[in-house]
Design brief:
The structure holds 3 protein chains of 3 kinds.
Chain A lengths: L9 E2 L17 H15 L2 H4 L5 E5 L2 E10 L5 E2 L2 E2 H14 L3 E13 L4 H17 L3 E10 L7 E11 L15 E4 L5 H7 L19 H9 L6 E3 L5 H13 L1 E6 L7 H10 L13 E4 L4 H9 L8 E9 L3 E5 L5 E4 L12
Parallel strand pairs in A: 6-7, 11-14
Antiparallel strand pairs in A: 2-3, 3-8, 4-5, 6-8, 9-12, 9-13, 10-12, 11-13, 14-15
Helix pairs in contact in A: 3-4
Chain B lengths: L4 E9 L7 E6 L2 E6 L11 E5 L2 E5 L2 H4 L1 H13 L1
Antiparallel strand pairs in B: 1-2, 1-4, 2-3, 4-5
Chain C lengths: L9 H14 L4 E7 H9 L10 E8 L1 H4 L2 H11 L4 E5 L13 H6 L4 E3 L5 H8 L4 E8 L4 H14 L4 E8 L1 H10 L7 E5 H7 L4 H8 L3 E4 L3 H17 L4 E3 L11 H10 E8 L3 E10 L8 H4 L9 E2 L4 H5 L31 H8 L2 H9 L1
Parallel strand pairs in C: 1-2, 1-7, 3-4, 3-5, 5-6, 7-8, 8-9
Antiparallel strand pairs in C: 6-11, 10-11
Helix pairs in contact in C: 1-11, 2-15, 7-12
Classes of the chains: A alpha+beta, B alpha+beta, C alpha/beta.
Amino acid sequence: MPPDPSSIVCPVSTADAEVITLGHGGGGGLTRSLIEGMFLPAFADPALEARLDAGMVDLGDARLAFTTDTYVVSPPFFAGGDIGMLAVHGTVNDLAACAARPLFMSVGLILEEGFPMSSLRRVVESLAREAAAVGMRIVAGDTKVVERGKGDGIFVSASGIGLVQVDPRPGPDRIEEGDAILVSGDIGRHGVAVLATREGLAFETEIESDTAPLWDLVQALLDAGIELRCMRDPTRGGAATALVEIAEMAQCTIELDEPAVPVEPQVQGACELLGLDPLYVACEGRMLFVIPPGQASAALAGIRSHPLGRSGAVIGRVGERGTARVLMRSSIGSTRIIDLLSGEQLPRIC
Amino acid sequence: MCLALPGLLLEMRGDDPLTTVGRVSFNGIVREVSLGFLPEARIGDYVVVHAGIALSVVDAEEAARVFRELGLLGEAAS
Amino acid sequence: MKYVDEYRTADAAKRYAEAIARAVTRPWTIMEVCGGQTHAIVRFGLDQMLPPGLSLLHGPGCPVCVTPAAAIDQAIAVAMTPGAILCSFGDMVRVPGTGGSLLDARARGGDVRVLYSPLDALAVARAAPEREVVFFAVGFETTAPATAMLVLQAERAGLRNLSLLVSHVLVPPAIEAILAAPDNRVQGFLAAGHVCTVMGVEAYGPIARNRRVPIVVTGFEPLDLLQGIHMCVRQLEAGRCEVENQYSRTVRPEGNPAARRAVDTVFEIVTVSWRGIGAIAQSGLALSRDYTAFDARGRFALQKPIAAEDPICIAGDVLRGRRLPHQCPAYAVRCTPDHPLGAPMVSSEGACAAYFRYRDGAAAARAVQG
């Protein structure tokens, strides 16, 4: 006997957030609700409200880019990198996305009681080496130790200051219909390299994190006369989230070509296995560029000739203005919407 | 429901049927998988894996069927 | 990726879509039972490639969507028990019970772990012998063998700190319930290929004959789905009501005998309640008498709470293929993946979330009008 349709009701969620959940840090819709609902109104500053990777402020004749980020990656050491490298690269890339030469950086360390001194030394050596490699000075720091169980070994908080090299500055307001969208390399390696180490998901892979500092690559494009209209560093939430944010800030349609998006076979394998979409998996050494169509091939050649851009590609174009959305043409020719993820991307089994 | 993926069986280990495991490669991502329900699996087979359990061996002959029938459809239409 | 990428090519998909259009002479309504198929259909926009008049309805085949809120509440109660570790699948931990989800429970201090395989719970239990480890086992016939394997290996290893909250459900009884409804609109089924990988195809013969409905066992890639639809349409046009197997590269007629034996050993068939649908006779699995020692309900004092439900949400109709997600007054207004009212909006495989994620309201409306 089938159930009586009138008895069919749907369970209501009481999940209106009263406490912070992991999803609030996932970079998707919940993160945005925090930023828009709490932070932006509270701090109310035009540099912050521009929602770029770094805030840009004028100081005398100089235009500075100022960024801050906190690194909580678990585990702190993973294939291809560690939390110290991430902190420097993340700072450099946020500044590079504003066409700013990285100059100064601060480092705050939150250490858990019992964290091995040898591990701390490795992280500090990474911080020093990677900062020196891009000519960035670490000029301020702080150390705190929390009781055992109140941290996850080590957290790193980093801020950076850079000098913006171009005028007008890059930003979503400069995007025009027809612009080309490029990515500096294949996506999702960092997220897969970290996932591979998680309890309960563990798998073997040769994939290493893509973590890398991209100022040199950006500078090479600037030196080549490429007009970098907008850049974004796709970290949490992956390329999809970064592109949705660009589309929303520029109030434009972004059209992506799924087969053109570079994804390493092993990254695809991990994503198929766990039911993830590589477009949402984090990168730490990739840049998205919006470039005038006439310069797309020159820009691509410039990206690919750089050691950090060998797998770069043109992945789409900017469509009509007025509607903020990202459309992706799939491998079978159909079109779908790309939106922000809700919460963190979890492996699905079903 | 039921995300399952074909992968290449690289190695097999164990002599107890219940706890026999294999190393299966999904485009180079390698995961240990239970072969407890797939005693007929052999190294070099593509096995369909769901939730860490191999459930079926992909039949290479049948795998081409979707394309064979597409060919027949084309002939019928022309 | 072998056996994946070749089934996602534009040219072959277009030719199958053309063949379907040639075969269709009048309106038909086909249901894909499985949430994984719904996900692929919406993600690849397959329904947009179909001729006008050929409608796809999305069935109840998202296992986390049909897991009762009461079962989730029990899992949360376990997770909040001092010393306990609750393990489940990634898509399960986001679905709300009556008082939040397992992720919310984790935020409140519960030890909730996401596993890829039920067998990974063995390692969790071995690594924490002083703690009680509970695996929250959900899913259809495809997943039941993995749970059975966990029980058999835990028994073999003599693991005393591992138990299960079992909430497995079965597909054929749900198909029967949909067909038996007085307002049923479904004329043909795409049956879930991976369920049949385990169970084979025999259960569908009587349904096809008695209910006069074609059933095509279908895979999950775009070409599989288009071929399955084509096979189903041809049966409908010819007036045939047979069980056909599109997914023959993976599904044997007898299924997987070893997996079926293990499921028969560890579980017994019981009547269970489906979220949004209600009780369906003989449609679920519970641990059999020999394995009740592994039942977490016996180890923890678990109460059965009464679910508070939102009357505006039409999840039940969506799960049974009566209405499409955007026909719900709450869809994309009060109900979004960030603030779901119903389970189909929560799981990435749920029909409502798939709609929300892969198309905007206007495109969805066009698809319905067309």
